[in-house]
Design a protein that fits this description.
The complex is a heterodimer of chains A (226) and B (216).
Chain A (H helix, E strand, L loop, with lengths): L5 H13 L4 H10 L4 H18 L11 H10 L12 H6 L2 H14 L9 E7 L11 E5 L5 E6 L9 E8 L6 E6 L5 E4 L9 E8 L12 E6 L1
Antiparallel strand pairs in A: 1-2, 1-8, 2-3, 3-6, 4-5, 4-7, 7-8
Helix pairs in contact in A: 1-3
Chain B lengths: L5 H16 L3 H22 L3 H18 L10 H21 L17 H4 L13 H11 L3 H5 L3 H13 L3 H8 L3 H23 L12
Helix pairs in contact in B: 1-2, 2-3, 2-4, 3-4, 6-8, 8-10, 9-10
The chains are: A alpha+beta (226), B mainly alpha (216).
Amino acid sequence: MDYSRPHMAEKLAAEYALGTLRAGARRRFEQLLPAHPALAAAVARWQLRLQALASPVAAVQPPAHLWPAIQRRLFGAPAPAPRWWQRLSLWRGFSGAASAVALTALVLMNQPQPVQAPLVIVMNSTAEGAELVKAGFVASVSADGQALVLMPLGPLTLAQGRALELWAVPAQGAPRSLGLVAGNSATTVLRAKLLQNTAAFAVSLEPVGGSPTGVPTGPIVSAGQV
Amino acid sequence: MSTTTPIARSQELAALLARIALGDRAAFEALYRATSGPLFGVVLRVNSNRGQAEEVLQEVYVNIWRAAAGYQAQQSQPLTWLTSIARNRAIDSLRRRATEPATVSRYSSLDDGNDGEEQQDLLEKLPADQAGPLELLEQATRAHALERCMQGLSGEQRSSLALAYYQGLSHAEVAEHLAQPLGTVKSWVRRGLQSLKQCLDRAAGLLGTGTAGESA
């Protein structure tokens, strides 16, 4: 099926948003979304149109045990009794950088599997971006491909109104955004399949808030092959 | 969340998502406190099995944590994005269940031995404490001044859309429950969506660009 045909894309987006696709068709359609921005935009427009229908659905308070269960699923076993890292006041006291480092440590400590060596990728600054910002990073990806910690090799100074965005670049096709990253501290990225179909990681210079289009719009300032 | 304006609430949720994208667990907890009630309602609406709905809600927040960095504020309102994740995971859970030899929906038990005439009344045969799909559709229509758009739809089109949206039924399941051929129901859904889109987009000037020329 040719999903790039606007009529077909529109029809499938509508049926996906409404929810009438069968299980197999839903799965195939969802897999297409990350690589087809036009399709994802059509879905977003349909979700917006149908959002009005959700308003009369009454809220139901979920049972109290769900929140700890969600935390366990994401972050491993909860820490012992006084979960100090959950206290808001403590977090407020930390600077963003300290939080990121602490979180990184927690993520690494909470890896449920036996510790396997992470994959370390050195990302050099590119010739293209060197005049704007000399940006070298070290990316370390957990062996299960679910966590990435990106550490700048030196402090970076960005021009006003600029941000750094990390991308997973496949051998073929469009890069996937992994979100904005900090230039002067470690950034932790949690994703299901960081390494699947990823040939390289790259950092691009983007407007504040990140690429408005879903693909890199500024120069690639740093890149490293997996 | 307190009684703030929709815009302030939306900005608050967007700010939380931005912090969650950077791995901020306190923001994640705040988002859970603010949205788990409405989202659990959405999930239960589609999958009324309590145990399964609780499981689905966990998946929803695991999804949100992992996908927050991919949330694009230019493309959707945070609540729309969150609701869509909740509906999608709930529908997935129904589709999974459909492959098991269990009943597909609460209507199935009424199927045995009855013919089409009985099934026409299915939408009315809901527990008194819970609004049926058509009733919800009417409430949404009134609340959002969608009367003009909904009037453009036939009764069959409205029923098909309501069953699909509020019950998470597939084309084939809607056809079964309305006792109509699959092809007929598919065309009701398709035409219903098409009219809804034209009317809504005209009324709201919704995303004015990019939708022109698709009215095939």
